[in-house]
Structures are given as structure tokens and as C-alpha cells.
Protein: Acyl-CoA dehydrogenase
Amino acid sequence: MPATLLSTRDLDFLLYDWIGLESRLNESGLMDRESADAYFDLSRKLAEDEFLTHYKASDTKEPWMDADGVHVLPEIGKALTSYKELGLFGASFSEDLGGMGLPFLVTSASFVWFVAANCATVGYAMLTGANARLIASFGSAEQVEQFALPQIAGDWFGTMCLSEPQAGSGLGDVRTRAVADGQDALGDRYRLQGNKMWISAGDHDISENIVHLVLAKVPDENGVLPEGTKGISLFIVPKMLPDGNRNDVIAAGLNHKMGNRGTSNCLLNFGENDGAVGWMIGESGQGLRQMFMMMNEARIAVGFTGAAQAYRGYLLAVDYARERLQGRHIGQRGGDPVPIIEHADVKRMLVAAKSYAEGSMALCLFCAALVDRPEDSEASALLELLTPVAKTFPSEFGLAANDLAIQVHGGYGYTRDFDVEQLYRDNRLNAIHEGTTGIQAQDLLARKILHSDGAGISALKARVTDTIRRARHLPKLVELADDMQSALDKVDSTIEALKGCNPQAQIDNATPFFKGFCVVVVAWHWLDQALCAANKNCASEDDRNFVQGKLAACRYFFECELTSVTPMLTFVASGSDAVSSISPDFF
Structure:
């Protein structure tokens, strides 16, 4: 077992020095720093003692099916029972709903320990919390009591059922149908028929019930389904009905992914017999809008997952590089081998991984802090803009950090004896979870920038400009502040150039724009972290090394990553059709 999953020192720095969690706690009156630290320590200990301990086993002993359904490694259920007993399923829910009422930032800082230890196991809890929150937000009082409260308590688990075999991410092509079947105390009742693919936690034997949230369409009087996404509604479809009978929902098969192997991933058939019983949430045709609440929460959770897995891989690589003796300094032929951490190329890989992992963690914690400010319109606009970034940068650059961790381990990194190869496989899934990078790119550019009221991008520019202004007061950061301003100006001019293009041309190069935008956002967070670190009082050599490490990672990210933004955005602003003009016949 590694000495640590994450850096407690860095989390304390990000939470208390950078974000100012202590003052936020004092404002809320919910808990003080001592209570928060105890909560984080409890999370760390549970993650290490009961989640990390079956990390390898859950990868090798995958879920399996027999006549009784889907089964998973028993240790997964035991760990989640402990998670439940500590009230962690409902930590972020109000006390009125049986939760603790803790700020999202606090519960997120707890969550990262579990995804670092075993993302496959805590994935069941993440989906359950998001499912319950959606029902609590849009469901009737009866639906909340029947279906949300047992999930908040951790007695039942939940899923989100969007994709279908023939549709994938094209949700407008959903063909699952829901036919009206009267009313009861839980609302408008329907019978559902259809298939859902890639359903994480779709079936298993570790909870009393599974509450599925299912996107489906209600046919018209002629039995014809509405076209497009506007005809999609949302339904609560439990595995076990309120009367104790089994619903018409079965797992037709298991998908065996390259990572997250402990999370059962299912093809679910709804309504093979008389139709699966479900209850509509809210009004007809509002399903996708409602589901986006769950998806956005899940996107931030995916970002935290990528960040935590990158961070753990980075720390494992640092430990290995300190211990592994190999080679000698340039010009030396004799003497004992030196730790590989002294070699320039190993240091290059480690500082790159550090900049990606710590930058990802800062980004996600920043967004979690925004979630706690729903009354602040500027914070809400900024959160909406940055949610795709928080999901994608850790998914892409976190994976790059895991790739570097493998390389630092040399040949050993490619074997199952070391956790870095499993971390890489687990993290690789995050680039497709809750929407691919390309989908996030189009969402950010088209919906949140070009065709919005501009509140989000204005809020971002104001905050980045403030960081630049403050950084210019520190001689060691003046040059970086100037680079940050140039990058911000480049984003601005690229957006203006795209506004003059037709709609198709605007999104042709959305992904390279998005990647450049992500780097700019994380560079801003690095500059802001550097400011905070440079002003920190250092009482020990360890403190000084920590601060210098922050400044070194910031410098690396600016000199080796931010410099890629200008050519990337120049390509986008040119309106190039280098990609869009390619005929499918050319491949």
C-alpha cells in the first residue's frame, strides 16, 4: 500500500489557503475547520482501509451473471455498507431529506479520497447520490419519499439510463417507449419497453433495490414516437416495485470494459413481458432538461475522478523514482547508481504529471466551491461555463499524467504488479463518461459561448484579469502574468473571429478551441495558486519545498503547455477546413 493516496498538504493548501474554505464554513455555521478536518481524515481512513484494499481484486474478479442476475465482488458491498453507516451517501443532502447538509466543496474533498482508492467501488455511491438529487429536485413529494430517501440513506442504489445500442450519444434517436398506464399515489404511471446500453451499476447484488432513471418517449395516439430531443421524458423505473414484486427489467448482458472493472456495466432490457412499470417525473417532454442536472453533477464527479487517479499515479511515480537506482550523472562512469529522480528526463515527466494532476484538482475544487454559491449569478454563470472544462481537462491531461507515471516506472510500469497500469486503464474511461471530449467542446463553444448571453465568459475574464493584476505586483510572476494576458486576449480574438462564421464553420474546429481553452483556464488556476503560495509564510524546509514545487509546476505549465495555445487558436480563428473538407472516401 502506498504511503498516501493523495497529498493532504496540497489539499489543505487548495481548500484553506487558496479557496478559503475556513471562512466559508464560518459563514455557513455548519461546521468549523476542526470538524471539517476530522471529516476529511475519516474519509481518508475509510478509503485506505476498505476501498483501497480490494482495488486489485475488483479489477481481476469482474462482475458475473447467472440465473439469479448480476453479482459483484463481495468486498465492494462491504465497503459501501461502511460508507453508508457513516452517512456518506447523504452527506450533501439537507437534513430535511435525511442528510448532513454539508457544503458540496466539503463532500467533494471527501469524495476524492475514495476515487483515488477505488473509483469502481465508489462509482455506485456517486450515481446513487446524483439520482436521488434529481428526484428530490423534480419529483413529487410521494416520489421523493418512495425513491429518493432510501438512496440518500444508502439502502437503495441508483443509475442513469440514457444511451441505447443504436443511438449512443445521439439522444434524439432514443426509441424506448413509455405507454400511459393510469395513475396512482406516485403519479402518472407508464409501461416502458426498450433497451439501454452502457448502464453503470445497472444490476448487482449489493443493495436492496436499484432505482433507474430512464429517458423514453411517449407515443402519440397513432403509436408514433416524437422526433428529436424535445419529445424525451424522464421516468423512475425501480428494479423492485413498491409492492415487493420484481419489475419487468432484466440485465441482458454485461459489458467488459478496459477499466473500472468492479462497476457492473449492463445492457438492460425494459419490458420484455408486460412492460416495465415507471412513473414520469415532472412534465412530458422535459426529460433531457431534468437529466442534465444529474449529468452535470456526474461531469464534475468524473473530473474529480480523473484528477484523483492522476494524482495517485503521480505520487506513486515520485515514490518509485526516489527508490529506483539506475544510471549515473552525465560525465560519470563509476560509482554507485543514483535514484532516477535525479535524471533530467525523469524530472521532466514528474513535473509534467504534477502540473496536470494538481492543476486538475484545483480546477475541480474551484468548481465545487461555485456549486455552493447558487444565489450568486456570476458564480452560477461561471460554473455553467467551466463544467465541461472540469469534466474534460482531468480526463485528458489526467490520463497523460498516468501515462507518464507508467513511463517513470519503466518496464515495471507496464505490469499488473504496479498500480499505475490499472490507474491508466481506469482513467481512460473518463474521456467518454458523461459525454465525449468532442461533445463537451461543442457544448462549450456553441451553447455556452457563441449562443449565450456572455455572462459566463465575462465572469471568467473578470476573474482572470484580477489574477493578472495581482500577479504583476510580484516580480517573479510578472512575466507569467504577461503570458496569461496574451493567452486571454487570444481566446477573446478567436471568439470574435468565430462569431463571423456560419454555424457549421463555428463548430468544425470546436475541439481544438476547447483544448486550448482548457489549458488557458488551468494556467489561470496555476498562476492564482502561485500567487497564493508565494505569499505563504514558510515555517520549515518542507514548507519552502512545497512552495517552490508549486512555483516550479506553474512555470512548467506556462512554458510547456500554455505556449501551445496560440498556434492552436490561430488555426481555429483562421476558419480552416483542413478537417471538415475531407471526404469520407479519403479514408
In short: The beta strands are 64-66, 69-71, 157-161, 177-184, 187-200, 210-217, 232-238, 249-254, 265-270, 276-280.
